[in-house]
Automatic annotation (TrEMBL):
One of its GO terms (biological process) is alkanesulfonate transmembrane transport. NCBIfam families: taurine_ABC_bnd. This is Taurine ABC transporter substrate-binding protein. Its main location: periplasm. Pfam families: NMT1 (PF09084). InterPro entries: Peri-bd_TauA, Solute-binding_3/MltF_N, SsuA/THI5, TAT_signal. It is found in: Periplasm. One of its GO terms (cellular component) is periplasmic space. It comes from Labrys okinawensis. CDD domains: PBP2_taurine (cd13560).
């Protein structure tokens, strides 16, 4: 068992023995939300304090380097709402952690890529090379899927478990030959390497990935109004961007705010926003997204992770880990305004 898996199992055990969710926070109306460094439209709303205004709650925003760390924090009760990729989400659901998907945050494209040194001209050149990736992340899933597509045995590549900051530093030092990751680490790798494949390519090969906002089931059940308000603000931010993406230029307040929160360069923000698809509230609550499609995507991801021996088993049904009620309620409330 990898150290990451041990950590997730310990977190799961801790979750079973503690009051999971927001019980400790309900009295003083505080909630802890875990976010990551990926660029997305909702970061502008986060920087502007829109979530606090909409919920009426104090929010402690905690930055994480990987979805696995977010999952562990939610499982321990330290975080109530968090941003994760489809791979750690599938792994957590497969271990039956009490979580649910409340918003599909992004359908990933060129925002996650495998960057290698110029000496690697072809996928077959990866054999024997050291490639860094955060384990049980969407990038890890995409890397394994790409290797499978190319007919390259994962054991023939030295795949190292590195968080994004560690990965970027290792590539800078010359300790690794490449890395599959997201910004801002991705941008640092691209300064000295070249893109071998992106998650948009891997999606075309039958292994799409997505990011999602999840919540602890207990917190969502106890405070549905808070979760609905959170989803509503996120959806409104996405609509603002999609209605006029050109307004989010490098000199815009939105791009500057996003750069401050993520560590990305302001000049990179517009391109990174265009790299993914940001689903609107109407799309969230449809059967095609926060319904059968997302449930199937989680199940497919879990199946692949089990095949790669990254999780012990696959559940017969993942529908309990997706809840479109909050998106539907948010859409109803906005429509009535």
């Amino acid at each position: 068992m990898t150290s990451l898996n041990r950590r997730l199992f310990l977190a799961a055990g801790l979750a079973l023995g503690t009051a999971f969710g927001g019980a400790a926070h309900a009295a003083d109306n505080k909630v802890t939300i875990g976010f990551q460094t990926g660029v997305d439209p909702a970061k502008a709303a986060q920087a502007a304090g829109a979530y606090e205004k909409a919920t009426g709650w104090q929010i402690a925003w905690r930055k994480f380097d990987s979805g696995a760390d977010v999952i562990a924090a939610i499982a321990s009760g330290d975080v109530q709402i968090g941003y994760v990729g489809s791979s750690p989400l599938a792994a957590a659901a497969s271990r039956q952690l009490p979580i649910e998907t409340i918003f599909v945050a992004a359908l990933l494209g060129d925002s996650e890529e495998l960057v290698v040194r110029d000496t690697i001209k072809d996928p077959k050149d990866l054999a024997g090379k050291k490639i860094g990736v955060p384990f049980v992340s969407t990038s890890h899933y995409s890397l394994l899927a790409a290797l499978k597509h190319w007919g390259i045995a994962p054991k023939s590549v030295q795949i190292l478990n590195l968080r994004p900051p560690e990965l970027a530093a290792a590539f800078e030092r010359g300790d690794i030959d490449g890395g599959y990751v997201w910004d801002p680490a991705l941008g640092k790798l691209k300064e000295k390497g070249r893109v071998l494949v992106s998650s948009a390519d891997v999606a075309k090969w039958g292994a799409p990935t997505f990011d999602a906002w999840i919540a602890s089931k207990d917190f969502a059940k106890a405070h549905p109004d808070v979760v609905t308000s959170f989803v509503k603000v996120t959806g409104e931010a996405y609509k603002t961007y999609r209605d006029n993406p050109e307004a989010w230029s490098v000199d815009s307040d939105q791009a500057k705010a996003i750069a401050r929160l993520t560590g990305s360069k302001p000049e990179d923000v517009p391109g990174l926003l265009k790299a993914n698809v940001w689903p609107l509230l109407a799309e969230q609550s449809s059967p095609d997204l926060l319904g059968g499609a997302t449930v199937k995507a989680i199940a497919d991801t879990a199946g692949f992770l089990a095949e790669q021996k990254k999780i012990p088993a696959v559940l017969p049904d993942y529908s309990a880990y997706v809840n479109k009620a909050f998106a539907a309620q948010a859409l109803t409330e906005l429509s009535s305004q």
